[in-house]
Amino acid sequence: MRNIVVSEFVSLDNVMQAPGGADEDTEGGFTHGGWTGPFWHDDIGAHFFEAMSQSDALLLGRKTWQIHGGAFEPMPAGDPFGDLMNSMPKYVVSTTLTTASAWRNSTLISSNVVEEVRSLKAQPGKNIVIDGSSVLVHTLAEHDLIDEYSLHVYPVVLGSGKKLFPEGLRVHLRLIESRPLPSGVVLMRYARA
């Protein structure tokens, strides 16, 4: 059985929305996009590359899939991270997309999400990684399908935005790694208790 690993950048107040850029996701009037920028350290990129190397599939919500696909699909061959992202099988969960052809090696999941994810987990293979995709993460957390949370926790409080954990859900976790980085970010890895 494969593990589902949620890999996220989060603020101290549990916000995961638009870490990468000002216009990445302004839904709900969110104005803090790009909040991770001042805290970048090469160790963050190295950890993410390592996590992706231990995985053989990405599971993403529509918005995150479109953002990632828009960045990685046009990359020419030869970029190590771009090559990894483009060659890896991707599963996009969406009720509005009619095709997943915009990013190579993608498969559309448009119904029976929980059952489809359970089926993916039951297949042999490495980890399945989710990043971004707040609605999908909430759904999978509510159905106890997430095996690990790999979080880069940033020393910032944003006050608003999409949260990693849904309101009202109690989750018991066990710390498996904690590593402070020079920029003030802390890598925190938790498994199901």
UniProtKB/TrEMBL annotation:
Pfam family, one: RibD_C
The Bacterial bifunctional deaminase-reductase C-terminal domain, residue ranges: 4-187
Highest rank taxon of the organism: Bacteria
InterPro entries: DHFR-like_dom_sf, RibDG_C, Riboflavin_Biosynth_HTPR
GO molecular function: 5-amino-6-(5-phosphoribosylamino)uracil reductase activity
Database matches in SUPFAM superfamilies: Dihydrofolate reductase-like
GO biological process terms held by the UniProt record: riboflavin biosynthetic process
PANTHER family per record: BIFUNCTIONAL DEAMINASE-REDUCTASE DOMAIN PROTEIN, DIHYDROFOLATE REDUCTASE FAMILY PROTEIN (AFU_ORTHOLOGUE AFUA_8G06820)
Identification of the protein by name: Bifunctional deaminase-reductase domain protein
